[in-house]
Write a structure and sequence with these properties.
379 residues; alpha+beta; Alpha-Beta Plaits; 2 domains; 6-stranded mixed β-sheet; rod-shaped; binds guanosine-5'-triphosphate; transmembrane; Nucleotide_cyclase; diguanylate cyclase activity; transmembrane helix; Rev_trsase/Diguanyl_cyclase
């Protein structure tokens, strides 16, 4: 049998937002760490002569040699001029100039020829001297200008590209940031929805266990609470109003409802707030309280009956008196599902024994206590 297909997990909004913010951080790191060295490398040219700088220096050597030859003609000056021309030649004779500037080759030849004749001690007349040096100087000047133009064009392009790049980074950061915020908002929204659903479920669950008229627990709540007490020794009292039908008939159902609420408060007071109360339906209540001793059970049952007697709530149509009375059946039991079921039957029987014997009293269930030993019944 093939295993069931695994449910595909989609990343939640929280993860999406965290991923967006991580992407944003990476983008910023890229911008500050990777781009910066590029800019630095481009603008920092210390130690490297550029195409323009070589041409400038070469031209300066040639101009110097021209100045020497025009002013002096002694052999020493000629030698110095020849040396300057050689230096200028060396800086002029590079691949970049030869490949890209047509004037380079013929002017290098002119310099060669001039230097040859200077080497033989022959200083050309001023006209041809000017030709021999001025032409290369002019060529070098053109190269300088062109290289300057080239450099500013490259710089402009680089600045433009950098600006474009920065705009992209800015827009990208903004988009990622906004996406992150949206994802985060979705996460918070979803979280709130889940919270609300949980609160709603808890409210429904609480309502499902509550009697809406009196606000105390209902029959299901009693079962749940008994299960929660697992193994504990408890007392269960079943409490029924005597002649409630007549009360309703005489005073109306709203007054009947009010009596139900008042009795809850009285029963609670009788048991000193130590019992949990439940409405089992109609005019029947239950009380659940911890009870290690049958005497506690008897005194709890008696207290409930006494408290209502003391309250002397008028009952205009009570066949046997003038005030509201209660019948109570009690039992002690161990909080286990089966023991509880038996205890409930025993308490119910005890209650009906009270009813059968004229009401307004209490009895304890035989399964829980040895009636013969304690004889706990009360009028
Ligand atoms: N006002 C009101 N009456 C209710 C409510 N639920 C049940 N009752 C009434 O409670 C009465 C219970 O009547 P019975 O079961 O005959 O009990 P009883 O009249 O108290 O008689 P005994 O228990 O034998 O003393 C009925 O008349 C129901 O209409 C409720 O929520 N509000």
């Amino acid at each position: 049998m093939s295993p069931p297909p695994r449910a595909r997990r989609t990343p939640g909004w929280l993860w999406l937002s965290l991923m967006s913010f991580t992407a944003l951080m990476l983008l910023i790191a890229y911008e500050t760490r990777w781009v910066h060295p590029d800019i630095h490398a481009y603008f920092s040219q210390s130690g490297n002569l550029t195409g323009q700088q070589l041409a400038t220096r070469s031209r300066e050597y040639l101009e110097e040699s021209l100045g020497i030859l025009l002013e002096e003609s002694d052999p020493d000056a000629v030698q110095r001029a020849s040396f300057q021309i050689e230096l200028g030649y060396g800086l002029f004779d590079i691949g970049l100039y030869r490949n890209e500037y047509a004037c380079t080759e013929p002017n290098l030849q002119r310099l060669d020829a001039l230097n040859d004749s200077l080497g033989q001690g022959v200083v050309p007349p001023p006209d041809s001297l000017s030709q021999g040096l001025l032409q290369p100087i002019r060529c070098l000047t053109e190269i300088e200008m062109d290289q300057l133009d080239y450099r500013s064009a490259v710089t402009n392009r680089f600045v433009e590209e950098t600006r474009h790049h920065q705009t992209l980074v800015l827009v990208g950061s903004l988009v990622i940031y906004l996406l992150g915020l949206v994802f985060w908002g979705m996460h918070v929204f979803k979280h709130r929805l889940a919270d609300r659903a949980t609160r709603e479920s808890l409210r429904w669950m609480a309502q499902a266990l509550q009697d809406p008229l009196t606000g105390i627990g209902n029959r299901s709540a009693l079962h749940d609470d008994v299960l929660a007490e697992k193994g504990g020794t408890m007392a269960l009292l079943l409490i029924d109003i005597d002649y409630f039908k007549q009360y309703n008939d005489a005073l109306g159902h709203p007054d009947g409802d009010q009596l139900l609420r008042e009795l809850v408060a009285l029963i609670d007071r009788a048991l000193s707030g130590k019992a949990r109360l439940y409405r089992m339906g109609g005019d029947e209540f239950a009380a659940l309280l911890p009870c290690d001793d049958p005497r506690t059970l008897a005194s709890a049952a008696a207290s409930v009956v006494e408290e209502v007697r003391r309250a002397a709530l008028p009952h205009p149509d009570h066949p046997a008196g003038t005030h509201v009375t209660l019948s109570v059946g009690g039992v002690q039991f161990t909080a286990e599902p089966e023991a509880f079921a038996a205890a409930y039957v025993a308490a119910d029987r005890a209650l009906y024994r009270v009813k059968a014997q004229g009401r307004d009293g209490w009895q304890l269930g035989a399964t829980a206590v040895e009636e013969s030993r304690y004889g706990f019944t009360g009028k």
